[in-house]
């Protein structure tokens, strides 16, 4: 495999630098990311176990011990690769601003940049993204090492996002949002300055994306699988803009593609080792790191609302989890499905409500959810004694019945993909209806 991959990588890098195409270089770096991560994972596993970074696979006979926190390898390879990517990304600016005569004084782009100046703002945007991803990965490692309590670790990604938000403030400071066409006459304006609220919104995005991936977890391959599907969907959206959209939207979608492609490379290697039956666990490090990739791309690419549409299954899982997250219904340490050793299938896991019942005001809601088949509740003499844990994973099992772990993971990934494609289509159809035009169709 390595024998065939290496020459193709060298070829793509050589071709992309000749074409001055940052996206092509990014594809090559993505391949490098795959190969390096795939080589490293099996070689570091035992060292992770030796220092106590391991977890028990709760859905296997005998609960085998496997390395945890392997997402740290992905994050390290990714960040290093993205550093090497910088000259490729900015090559076109380097050739137009470097003195020395010859063709170096001629722009390689069809449009000229203002005064042919090197775009330091773009570079700082890129570096702040890397800094943000680096601090997020470090905080994720801290979480995997110390197994922090949920109420503390929930806000960790917001700390990791500080470099991003500070550079955003200093560099752009754009806090305007477009007002939908049908409200423009009524409000007598086309956009609204949200000021500090916009920073709150960005901060919420950096908290939501990482945590929402972390709580849609507990089945081999699901954390990394959903991140790969999200990456493919975001790339699909980018490719629509890069092929059909106006030139004004190219920069942000090229930035998005450049960030996401190498992420897909390192994630594909992790998927190989984490898919059923898992040889390694990704750890919270990977969940935070992956979530932050999408938050960064959404924020700096100015399409955070579209990004949130792709996160629809995660949003539903979060809303559905709220009664347990806010302790209205007791929340056990693990809500992953229950494994039955006899048939090797996963069943919905339950939370015991005999000793610690759900809050009184919520009991009618539990009954209603049971009638609507949104949870399964067990009654003894009319009293609620248990209910299924409120996660999308358990809900799939309540609806479709028990199934093997790999089938469960694939079902959720397919659901994520279908919902994402429908969301992208709806976004571009509704965008035109709501705002009078859609960025994608602005050219026509
Ligand atoms: C989140 C979920 C928790 C779920 C856990 C599984 C919430 C509030 N928290 O907690 O309900 O049980 O993720 O990752 O929704 N594990 C497996 N198989 C897997 C993945 C994980 O058995 O495919 C187990 C392993 O023992 C592993 C542990 O889960 O060591 C990792 O749990 P951790 O990521 O620390 O849990 P949280 O993110 O806190
Ligand atoms: Mg986790």
UniProtKB/TrEMBL annotation:
Q: What EC number(s) would the UniProt record show?
A: 2.7.8.15
Instruction: List the GO terms this entry assigns under cellular component, sorted alphabetically.
Output: endoplasmic reticulum membrane
**UniProt keywords, alphabetically:** Endoplasmic reticulum, Glycosyltransferase, Magnesium, Membrane, Metal-binding, Transferase, Transmembrane, Transmembrane helix
Keyword Endoplasmic reticulum listed? The answer is yes
Q: Which residues cross the membrane?
A: 26-44, 65-90, 154-178, 198-217, 224-243, 255-273, 285-303, 379-400, 412-435
Recorded topology in the membrane: Multi-pass membrane protein
For molecular function, the Gene Ontology terms on record are: glycosyltransferase activity; metal ion binding; UDP-N-acetylglucosamine-dolichyl-phosphate N-acetylglucosaminephosphotransferase activity
Which terms under GO biological process does the entry name?
A: dolichol-linked oligosaccharide biosynthetic process
Q: Which cofactor does it need?
A: Mg(2+)
Q: To which pathway does this protein belong?
A: Protein modification; protein glycosylation
Subcellular location, record wording: Endoplasmic reticulum membrane
Q: State the Pfam families in the record.
A: Glycos_transf_4
Q: Provide the catalytic activity annotation.
A: a di-trans,poly-cis-dolichyl phosphate + UDP-N-acetyl-alpha-D-glucosamine = an N-acetyl-alpha-D-glucosaminyl-diphospho-di-trans,poly-cis-dolichol + UMP
Q: Which family does it belong to?
A: Belongs to the glycosyltransferase 4 family.
Under the heading PANTHER family, the entry gives: UDP-N-ACETYLGLUCOSAMINE--DOLICHYL-PHOSPHATE N-ACETYLGLUCOSAMINEPHOSPHOTRANSFERASE
Its biological purpose: UDP-N-acetylglucosamine--dolichyl-phosphate N-acetylglucosaminephosphotransferase that operates in the biosynthetic pathway of dolichol-linked oligosaccharides, the glycan precursors employed in protein asparagine (N)-glycosylation. The assembly of dolichol-linked oligosaccharides begins on the cytosolic side of the endoplasmic reticulum membrane and finishes in its lumen. The sequential addition of sugars to dolichol pyrophosphate produces dolichol-linked oligosaccharides containing fourteen sugars, including two GlcNAcs, nine mannoses and three glucoses.
Q: What is this protein called?
A: UDP-N-acetylglucosamine--dolichyl-phosphate N-acetylglucosaminephosphotransferase
* Organism name: Zygotorulaspora mrakii
Classification of source organism: Eukaryota, Fungi, Dikarya, Ascomycota, Saccharomycotina
